[in-house]
UniProtKB/TrEMBL annotation:
Source organism, top-level taxon: Bacteria
UniProt-listed PANTHER family: 4-HYDROXY-4-METHYL-2-OXOGLUTARATE ALDOLASE 3-RELATED
Pfam families the record matches: RraA-like (PF03737)
Organism: Hylemonella gracilis ATCC 19624
Positions of Mg(2+) binding: 118
Gene3D superfamilies, A to Z: Ribonuclease E inhibitor RraA/RraA-like
Cofactor: Mg(2+); a divalent metal cation
InterPro entries hit by this protein: RraA/RraA-like (IPR005493), RraA/RraA-like_sf (IPR036704)
Residues given in the record as substrate binding sites: 95-98, 117
Keywords for this protein: Magnesium, Metal-binding, Methyltransferase, Transferase
Protein name: Putative 4-hydroxy-4-methyl-2-oxoglutarate aldolase
Gene Ontology molecular function, alphabetical: metal ion binding; methyltransferase activity
């Protein structure tokens, strides 16, 4: 293997992946300081799609999927292919054949800053695919890239082995070293939100932070209310 292809790297543990999979991407992003969410252009082909797993990073040139084929041969079951396609939508980098092979290989899902095709068939497969768009054009298979190196995708740096959690709202990524520390924060936020929803159901729709925030912003004087 050349230095452009890194086969072995540390991954977030399966136990932490299972725990993180219990939470929405939005919950994890919030407790991560509202950081780690990829740009909204990268979304699920169908809203019910969800995936969690360690990132298997792939860097390709626009319109060429040679390195994705190589990555599929190297990825481990449970990995999520995270592909920096440079946001190019002029040609699809994956379609039904490749995604069907991913499912057979045990790959957990695909996140791609680029285009896919055969979108209706992919939706029927139910395999989690998060892409920037679709295009009927096919790719070339000629240009080298890199595997197992950090990539920049959707405005976020993703390292191999980092946690990926994606759902209808989008894609969240966290450095593998901090995942364990996020989990109790995520549980507390879920509990707090459940308590707030119960209050709303009982008629208490007032947000306790609103008046202080308006005063801080200079929109209300001390003692004033809406």
């Amino acid at each position: 293997m050349t230095q452009d292809i890194v086969r072995d790297f540390d991954r977030v543990s399966p136990a932490l992946v299972r725990q993180a999979a219990e939470y929405q991407a939005a919950i994890l992003a919030d407790v991560n300081g509202r950081r780690g969410a990829l740009h909204g252009r990268i979304g699920a082909l169908r809203p019910e799609m969800k995936v969690a797993g360690p990132a298997f990073t792939v860097d390709v040139r626009p319109g060429d999927n040679l390195m994705i084929h190589a990555a599929m041969a190297l990825a481990k079951p449970g990995d999520v292919l995270v592909i920096d396609g440079k946001g190019d939508l002029t040609a699809a980098l994956m379609g039904t054949i490749m995604i069907t092979a991913c499912r057979k290989l045990g790959i957990a899902g695909v996140v791609i800053d680029g285009a896919v095709r055969d979108s209706l068939e992919l939706a029927e497969l139910g395999f989690p695919v998060f892409a920037a768009g679709t295009n009927p054009n096919g790719p070339t298979k000629n240009v080298p890239g890199r595997i197992g190196h950090p990539v920049s995708i959707g405005g976020v740096t993703v390292r191999p082995g980092d946690l990926v959690v994606a759902d209808a709202d989008g894609v969240f990524v966290a450095a593998r070293e901090i995942v364990e520390s996020l989990l109790p924060l995520a549980r507390k936020k879920v509990d707090d939100e459940a308590a707030r929803l119960a209050q709303i159901a009982q008629g208490n729709t007032h947000s306790p932070w609103l008046l202080p925030a308006l005063r801080t912003a200079g929109l209300l004087k001390d003692g004033e209310t809406l």
